[in-house]
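Hi R.,

Here are the chain sequences for the assembly we discussed:
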Amino acid sequence: MARNLARILGGCGSLVPFMKTPACPPRSSSSSSIPPARTLVQMLFSKSRDFSLPNSSWGEEMMRLYEFYNGKSDIETEGEENQRREWKRLPSYNRSLKYATGGVYLSKIIQSKARLFTRNIREPGAAFEYVLFINKEKERCVCIFQAGHLLEGPPGHVHGGAIATMIDTVTGTHASAISAPVMTANLNIDYRSPIPLGSTVLIESTLEKTEGRKLYISCKVTSTDGSKRHTDATALFVSISVAHLLKG
Amino acid sequence: MARNLARILGGCGSLVPFMKTPACPPRSSSSSSIPPARTLVQMLFSKSRDFSLPNSSWGEEMMRLYEFYNGKSDIETEGEENQRREWKRLPSYNRSLKYATGGVYLSKIIQSKARLFTRNIREPGAAFEYVLFINKEKERCVCIFQAGHLLEGPPGHVHGGAIATMIDTVTGTHASAISAPVMTANLNIDYRSPIPLGSTVLIESTLEKTEGRKLYISCKVTSTDGSKRHTDATALFVSISVAHLLKG
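And here is the predicted structure of the full complex:
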């Protein structure tokens, strides 16, 4: 299923205009409208929130790991090329459209109530708090995930659907970084031990192989010290054509 | 993973006291407190919202299907045994604890910020709107699901994680109705075609077989007329002991 269009489009700026076509028609529940010109100019200069940056809800473990991977990431320096580092932090927004090249600006023009599932709650720390890093060779992705109290499944523990959502997010981001645009064809998840609400875990994805248009990615969810395996998963993605994207 | 404890406990009233034990300790993000006696009495007589009942956000198709299955469900009549009908509507709450026998009352005593993942947003129609019916012989479950604008994955379409969440919810409810308590061991999901935001779909689960403590359940997500297959899935659940539940 073309679930990663948002991320996909990050590498496909030429596809952005399609997001205005009937291929993705605005529905009553996510109706769009274009604001007046003056408001538009003001909005264009406002900054979109990057949810992958630390906020006051991030606990000690989340911050420690963020600083660890961020320390191994690109450092942007004016007038110089970025230093080559092992990891790169990926930004995160609350609308799919913002992931496209130029999408942050487009999202200010194309107003919609629709929100990215993993970023649909405003209260920091209440639901999904996470940040993704991808390694330079794109063989691996790592996600630091802190599970909020609105993600409950069994009492005191994270819902299996919320775990599946994070696995989908991490592997999908990984796949589209390698070969955008892609469609997810399969997710296969083994649940081994529950994740307590409020805890921080690591989600790591690895590119296993590619076969033609297919990408096979494995994924594991562990405690931050790696001693406890919470979940194992595999994901299959398929590179698709622009025509396929348009069909939805 | 013991993701269905909430539903599990619905058939295991004797397990409810364990929910006060350190097996499910309250965390900072979901801290519990016991209110004063007078407030407590007032609260005990207030009614918990059943999210499986229609609200103003339900569209025509959602209402039509609800009335179809509800018409084939038990009719409660005072002083008489319920009429034997084909289907039974299952109630739905916003806290795991409420699914336990007596849990609706317990949840008023044990206050917590934690909310069931699929019912964590107050605004009707914004996220997951769904109702489940189970057939009398428990061989099948059917869920009518209307996808709100806060469940976005690719622009204009439902996030794969949100679909996984609904599959988990339907098959988990089904499994625990057959053999509570259970743990979900595996979810295997094939995504075939994306689901537009705002649309209503059918999610149907079927018990395929049982082998000792294992329950194999299949699941499909289709358009309401059955002409379009959105998703196929299989789920494996394992019946567990009380000791296993306590380990979390």
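The first helix of chain A runs from residue 5 to 9. The longest strand of chain A covers residues 200-211.

Let me know if anything looks off.

Best,
T.
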